[in-house]
Design goal:
The protein contains seven helices and no strands. By secondary structure, the protein is mainly alpha-helical.
Length: 273
């Protein structure tokens, strides 16, 4: 009897020892799953912040692009207006300078032949009236050259303004893609938290391992997105700066102001008529 009792006591001691190890292992697993959930929660909060920041930056960039596009439309409209005015001036220019000189010579010759007769007076009046009409209708050479120069300079400014507006596209695309990729990482972190919660409920190591895989996938996506977005934004910023410098060189605001002042001054000093 005593031998059997001793064996039963020894068996009970082994079971108690094994139960203690099992409880300790369960507590350790719960602790690890809890730490995993906390880490995934931090990743989730980080992804949420990065998504919001990327979208805010994207909206700010689109506002700047809208301003640049409006400036381009203004310059393009001005360019078309100046071009149409140059076309009108070109239509008023004499197409046959040789014929005009021949007609002028003919009128001069008729005027000399008529002398001081009544016909001579009429011819002279016609000659003067024709010269007056032509001088008022035909634009001067300086005006035509000025408008031709304006068309050329506004054409360059229009191209620079268009490139400036389009230079914001890569930055918008970079922020859009980064926000989308951070959302992927956020989704993986959410899946990881759900699986870790179920693993904690059932003390399941397999589900905990799967939640760790989702967490590692989320971290990898964050690192890859941050690296690629940083490189893309650097390239986009360089293009924007180059386009901005080119536009400033092509802008004609100062030249237009000087021309306007000169034109007003010439008009103010015109003789009275």
């Amino acid at each position: 009897m005593s031998h059997e009792l001793a064996e039963q006591m020894e068996h009970a001691a082994h079971e108690a020892h094994a139960g203690g190890h099992e409880k300790a292992g369960g507590a350790s697993l719960s602790k690890m799953i809890g730490m995993t959930m906390a880490g995934l929660g931090v990743i989730l909060a980080f992804c949420s912040a990065m998504v919001g920041g990327a979208r805010s930056s994207m909206i700010a960039t689109m506002v700047k692009q809208t301003d640049a596009s409006n400036k381009y439309l203004t310059i393009a409209t001005k360019y078309r207006l100046i071009e149409s005015q140059l076309q009108e001036m070109h239509a008023l220019l004499p197409t046959d300078s040789t014929g005009m000189k021949k007609a002028e010579g003919t009128l001069t010759q008729l005027e000399k032949q008529a002398g001081k007769s009544p016909n001579g007076t009429v011819i002279k009046a016609i000659h003067l009236q024709t010269a007056q009409v032509l001088s008022g209708a035909i634009p001067t050479r300086s005006d035509v050259l000025r408008f031709a120069d304006m068309v050329e300079t506004y054409g360059k400014e229009k191209e620079a303004a268009q490139e400036r507006a389009e230079s914001f596209d890569p930055r918008v695309e970079a922020y859009t893609e980064s926000a989308e990729h951070y959302e992927w990482a956020q989704l993986m972190a959410e899946f990881g938290i759900v699986l870790a919660s179920v693993a904690l409920l059932f003390a399941n190591r397999i589900l905990w391992g799967v939640s760790l895989v989702f967490g590692l996938g989320s971290l990898s996506t964050i690192v890859w997105t941050t690296t690629s977005a940083h490189a893309a934004l650097n390239r986009a910023e360089a293009r924007i700066n180059d386009a901005e410098d080119a536009y400033k060189k092509a802008a004609q605001d100062k030249a237009d102001g000087e021309f306007d002042e000169k034109l007003v001054e010439e008009v103010e000093h015109l003789p009275k008529w």
